[in-house]
Amino acid sequence: MLLVFLAVVLFIIGATLSRRVDVSISLAAGAVAYGVAAFGPGVLAATAAAFNMSMAYVLTSLIFAMALGFLLREQKTRIASGLSALGARAAAFAIPAAIGLLPMPGGAYVSAVVVDPLYDKMGLKSHQKTFLNYWMRHIWIPVWPLFQGVLITAAVLGVSVWQVVEWAWPGALFAAAAGVAVAASLVKPVPVAGDPRDLTALWPLAAVAALSFLVPLPLAVGAVYLAYVVVNNVGRDQLAASLKYALNPRILAIIVFSLVFAQYIKESGLGAQLAQALGPYSGLAVFLIPFAVGLATGVEFTFAGLAFPPISSLIHGPALALAFAGGFLGVMLSPAHSCFVLTREYYQADVGMVYRLLAKATAAVVALSAAYYVLIFY
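RESULT FIELD:
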C-alpha cells in the first residue's frame, strides 16, 4: 500500500498546486481512492470506524474555537493596547503572536492591520513588516490546543492535546527564537501608548487554557464561548455570524477527510511499512515529509492530517517536535499560504525581499531542529 499512498499524496499535492482544485476536494478524492484501493468493499466499514468520539471531539472543539475567535476579533485594539504597555519592541513581536492565538483562516491580515501603526513608527519597510507579522502570527502552530493541527495530531496519535503540547513545544520555541533573532535588530524603541488593563481582553484564552486541565477541551471551549456571549451581551446577529463562520464547510471537510484518511492509513498498516522502508533515514523523513506536504498545500493543518498518520509510529514522543518544525516551515514557505498572500498584499511588499528574511528564519529553525535531534536521539 506504500506505492498507492505515495500516488495519492502526489495527486493531492499536484491538484492543489494547480490552483484549479481546492485542497478540501483533492483531499477527499485522494482519501476515497486510497480507501477503495486498500479495503475494496470493506471501505465502508473502515469509513464508519472513522466517525467516532475522537472525530466528534475534534470537530466540537474546532467549531467552538473558531466561533470564539470570530467574536474575539472585536477585542483586537484592546489586545494591542495592553501589549503596547510592555514597550514598543516587545509589542512588535507580541501583538501578532497574541492575535495568533485566535484560530481563524487568514488571521495574519487582522494582526497586520492592528500592528501597522506601530511598525510605521519604527520605520519598518514593507517586507520587514510582512515577515515580522507573518512569522510571529504562526509560532503557536505546534502547541496551542485550539489550533486544528494540534487537535488532528491528538486524534491521529490517540493522545490528549496536552500530551501533544508536551512533545511538540520545542518546535514552537524554535520558531519564536528564529523570529526574534532575525527581526530583533529591525525593531526600534519608540514612544508608544498602552494600557496594561487592556490585557484583560485576553481572559477568554486564559480561561480555555485553565479549564482544559479540568474538563475535556470541547466543554472548556464551549463554556468559555457561552460565557463570553453572556458577559459581553453579544447580539443575535453577531452570535449567528460567529456560528456561520465556525461552520465553514471547507474547513470542516478538510478536518473530516483528514481523519478518515488517517483511519484508512491506520487500518491498512501503512505506518509499519513506511517505518520499515525508511530504516536509518527515519529522522530525516520525520522532518521532510511534513515539510513537503505543508509546502505544497499551504494550509496550516493539512500536514498533520496527511503526513502524520503514516509516520505516527515515528513521532509518538519527542520526535513530534521535529515533525511540527518541518510542517511549520513548509507552510511558512508556501506561496499558497493565505496568510502570506494577505499580509504581503496589505503591506505591498516585494516577494523576494520577504523570502530573504524567511530564509534566514528557516535556516535558524533547521539548525535548532538538527541540534535537538542529535541531543535527543544520540
